[in-house]
Design a protein that fits this description.
four-stranded antiparallel sheet, 0% helix
Length: 73
């Protein structure tokens, strides 16, 4: 099996236009993806923007198995 982009699902976390974090899931034989998780702690100020964006993947697995959480401390 090769590890081409078509067998990976990338998700990046951005803060004010800067890419800070990458989570990556790789397809294994049979079409199942390994689990991927990550955590980042940011100090935010009024007007800051934070978002998640998929990467150069051809596709990400079709089931709604992705979650994003945030907390205000």
């Amino acid at each position: 099996m090769s590890n081409s982009d078509s067998q990976r699902c990338y998700a990046y976390i951005y803060h004010n236009g800067n890419r800070l974090l990458l989570s990556q899931s790789i397809e294994e034989n049979g079409g199942y993806y390994e689990a991927a998780s990550n955590t980042i702690l940011l100090t935010l100020t009024v007007g800051d923007r934070v978002w998640i964006q998929t990467g150069a993947s051809t596709f990400c697995y079709g089931y709604p198995n992705t979650a994003f959480s945030g907390w205000k401390l």
